[in-house]
Amino acid sequence: MVIDDADVDKATELAATLLALFEKPFIWSGREFFMSSSIGISVYPEDGHNIQQLLATADTAMYRVKQDGRNAFHFYHEAMNTDLQRKLDLDGRLRQALGKGELVIFYQPIIDLQTHNIVAAEALLRWQDKKYGSVSPDEFIPLAEQNGFIHKLGDFVIKQACQQAAQWQSIQPLQIAVNFSSVQFRYCEQICHQIERALAISGLPADKLEIEVTESLLFDHSKAVVALLEKLQALGTQLTIDDFGTGYSALSYLQKFPFHRLKIDKSFLQNLDTNAANRELVNAIVAMAQALKLTVVAEGIESQWQAEHLQKMGCDFGQGYYFSRPVPAEEFEQLLLTMNTAEPASVIDQA
């Protein structure tokens, strides 16, 4: 689309008008259909000197809209091209990272707030790329979900985590928590097979494996997802709802699905000592979980005050930098050998 004698304000007004048109349903054969639109805008001559360049930059801006959630518009700016080049480069490098041994699993301890002992570990994937250094999971996990590589990553994590946890059972019985993406749950049979195979190969008892799923999965659940969760429960694995309170929280979900535990999102622990509203909310979540006979893990504990206050609230377990950052398997094993006999005050020194 070429707009004669238009400036940025006119282009903005036109884009907003076009978006508004798509808010109304389209009628076909007596049925209503809703569509969204994503609009990218480039400006001559700043973003290109010919139609091909302008179309390319507008296309880049449009894909940024899609990446950010769709149904909006963006003007092109040069940083978008830099971001796009990085994304494309990371996409190719991620596919090779497994074979190069650049992907490793770190483990973060989950602590019993009463005894201060390690009772579980959460397996967290880390990527150390030779070109970009440490790449955040917040960047490479969504990328893997988009390009389909998430299924190979998931298989790698569940195998490695189960094998490692099986070895640690001789030191102390503990559970291993593994996150599963909602994208992985689109292939329920594949997930079930991966879990069963990982347990069989490692010899890890099923009740020592904790499957973490997000609230969004429950909101968009299908019969296949419900059947898979029930099968995993029958298998003996523990089911946890992760980041509770950040999505579509509803009591009906907690009652309908066979969960054993919920994790309070770390955002609720921010300013817990000064924010009375947050304290009341966390207290309500703990009380609700207790009524439903679910155990509770608080994520993001960063101070002794938080740990003690959560323990007084009746929260069962804690996880966060106060106890330990995520660490490689060798370091976690040392924590397992030492933290379970250490006094609570010494935990910070080891973290």
TrEMBL record:
EC number(s) given by UniProt: 3.1.4.52
Keywords: c-di-GMP
Pfam family, one: EAL
Residues annotated as signal peptide: none
Residue span(s) of domain GGDEF: 1-78
Molecular function as annotated in GO: cyclic-guanylate-specific phosphodiesterase activity
UniProt domain EAL: residue ranges: 87-340
Top class in the EC scheme: hydrolase
Name of the protein described by the UniProt record: cyclic-guanylate-specific phosphodiesterase
Organism: Photobacterium aphoticum
Lineage of producing organism: Bacteria, Pseudomonadati, Pseudomonadota, Gammaproteobacteria, Vibrionales
